[in-house]
Amino acid sequence: MFNRFKEKLSGFKEALSSKLQEKAARKEEEQAELEADNIKAEASKPAKAVESVEKQAKRSGEQKSTPATHAGANAVSNNNSANNSAKPKNRFSILDKAKSLVFEQEIILDEKDLIDPLWALEMALLESDVALPVAEEIVSSVKSELIGHKKKIGANTGQLAEDALRSALMKMLSANHLDFDEYIKTKEKPVKILFVGVNGTGKTTSIAKLAKYLMNQGYSVVLAAGDTFRAGAIEQLEVHGERLGLKVIKHKTGGDPAAVIFDAVEYAKAHNKDVVLGDTAGRLHTNINLMDQMRKIVRVTKPDLLIFVDEAIAGNDAVERARLFNESVPIGGSILTKTDADAKGGSAISIAYITGKPVLFLGIGQNYPDLVKFEPQWLVDRLLGEAEA
Ligand SMILES: Nc1nc2c(ncn2[C@@H]2O[C@H](COP(=O)(O)OP(=O)(O)O)[C@@H](O)[C@H]2O)c(=O)[nH]1
Ligand SMILES: [Mg+2]
Known about the structure:
Layout (H helix, E strand, L loop, with lengths): L2 H61 L3 H38 L1 E3 L2 H17 L4 H15 L3 E3 L5 H17 L5 H7 L4 E7 L5 H14 L4 E4 L8 H12 L2 E3 L7 H14 L4 E4 L9 H14 L3 E7 L4 H13 L4 E5 L8 H10 L3 E5 L7 E3 L2 H8 L6
Parallel strand pairs: 3-6, 3-7, 4-5, 4-6, 7-8, 8-9
Antiparallel strand pairs: 1-2, 9-10
Helix pairs in contact: 1-2, 1-3, 1-5, 3-4, 4-5, 5-13, 7-8, 9-10, 11-12
């Protein structure tokens, strides 16, 4: 999951690391020079001390007899040897200290330092199918995270890059967050949820997964076979209905999808069911007639929640489709499927920002439990490689 994204990000991490090391090394040099000057200054001090010892010795020699001169000479030689051995010892410990300081230093990054790392980050994001305005937003957020503040360099300089990116992604992904569980809990029943999107992206599978998800929470669910267009679509939903033990409301292939959904809602009302999940035929955002038909279905059935479904592996295409569906009908949120097979992560990052509507769930496999409620933290942990799928 997101392996290409992690790979691409290494360029940003390396660029920032080398900039930090370069700055730290410069600071270390300055520090070493300063220490060297100090040593020089220190070195001149003992000479004075010797002088004063000599003077003292002389004075006492004047007062006493000759052996005192020897004592003075000894004092001089002792002092000299102490001075000689202290010099290299001090120098070593100062260098060691300077080296360790590289990792303890607090460094302030400025605009110029960040040009290369941020360029590497923007390229990494764009190559990972993150939409341009989203990439720009992330870069600017990372920039304000890094610039001007004192940053303590730990032994792992890559961590700084990761922390800044983590915080930028969390900010972006949390912006349009919606708690689906809370939504269902508080909404008047039956809650009508309709699914739209391009063919083959995982609408029908996601309906079945979501039915299971809701059943696990104790809700009763009715399925509406609103894809009356594709041969076999009704049967596909019926198979899921049988497996899950759910009522499937259906008409004949070629029938009016709005009428099927209407009937399902009537059934739910009559039988006290909590949620209606309505399937629709896949349609391309570029097909004017099918988009018109979708608008009509939405107008007639008035769903409480219209969910746009697309596959994460479609990358920028999925983001663009989300934008166009969102312009055409009032989608309330998205489900991004096939995230398990997505190496780039771009659509997962971009879709909520582009539509201004939350990603509600991620599909992470073909089985019923392979649907995870969208949590920014869950996604960021996987994008940055701290947790496996
Ligand atoms: N790996 C993976 N496959 C999925 C996921 N969701 C759906 N699929 C598969 O995608 C294919 C198309 O799904 P379907 O629900 O029929 O798409 P629809 O045309 O939009 O209704 C099927 O083979 C599903 O098993 C997912 O999250 N991960
Ligand atoms: Mg389908």
